[in-house]
Design goal:
four-stranded antiparallel sheet, three-stranded antiparallel sheet, 9 helices
Length: 258
């Protein structure tokens, strides 16, 4: 058996970056994440206030404490998700100050949506992968398309688990939040690829197929931002334009049923 713990102990003192890949002498690519800075909690209090103001329970920010706590959370989440047969990196070694886990693949869904030949199929694959995670009893953390990896066998795996939504939110809100993260990160690419009108009925059908409490959490949040579909000028900034594209997608999904 390969001595992953020994290699982690050797690599950690040499690594300046918080996270980076390494090629081991057995030919395996792995990732090492070392302890990072503690995240100031005032950021989360401010975001939480904004979410409560607009009633966006499913968009409540989940604190990431950074430091050793974030490493412990990620290690625990990787073990739990693996036990639920959800495709995530294999935790290979952990010690105070760092963890090592396996490499899932080189292509994420963001690059497929941006450059691939079948953006609508990619979008459906990503949504369905999130839904399959929920059917397995799990939930994700940062379900953005950049954190969803197309593996060699065609399945979609997930990375980035430094926070745990279930420590702060009920299960249905965790699952609504996963889909909202996915939608927020993908709608703008569908718009760039001029696919919003074709994606709208796909979103409508998938929302109808979700458990009612999960779908309700998603729709409540999307109703709050629906007017943002009119904010299309570049001076609003990238964050607003992502929400604008999502609002436009949601609005079209509602009208696609008429």
């Amino acid at each position: 058996m390969y001595p992953y713990s020994q290699r982690l102990a050797e690599l950690l003192p040499q690594q300046a970056e918080t996270i980076r890949p390494h090629l081991l002498d057995n030919g395996q690519t792995v990732w090492v994440r070392r302890v990072g800075k503690t995240v100031p909690q005032w950021r989360y209090r401010l975001l939480g206030f904004v979410s409560r103001l607009f009633g966006l329970d499913a968009l409540m920010p989940v604190p990431n404490l950074g430091g050793q706590g974030a490493l412990d959370t990620e290690a625990g989440r990787l073990r739990l998700l693996a036990s639920q047969n959800i495709p995530v990196p294999i935790l290979l070694a952990e010690q105070s100050g760092g963890i090592m886990y396996s490499h899932l693949g080189n292509v994420n869904l963001q690059s497929e949506l941006e450059l691939g030949g079948k953006p609508l199929q990619t979008w459906c694959d990503g949504w369905d992968a999130v839904a399959a995670t929920h059917r397995s009893g799990g939930y994700l953390s940062q379900a953005f398309c950049r954190n969803m990896i197309r593996m060699d066998d065609g399945r979609i795996g997930f990375i980035d688990f430094e926070d745990d939504p279930a420590a702060f939110l009920p299960p249905e809100a965790c699952r609504s939040r996963d889909f909202l993260c996915y939608l927020q990160s993908t709608a703008v690419w569908l718009k760039h690829r001029q696919c919003l009108s074709e994606a709208a009925p796909l979103l409508r059908d998938r929302l109808l197929a979700l458990p009612p409490d999960v779908a309700a959490g998603i729709c409540r949040a999307l109703e709050k931002i629906r007017l943002l579909r009119h904010f299309r000028a570049s001076f609003w900034g990238n964050d607003t334009l992502r929400l604008s594209a999502l609002a436009e997608l949601y609005d079209q999904s509602l009208r696609s049923d008429v």
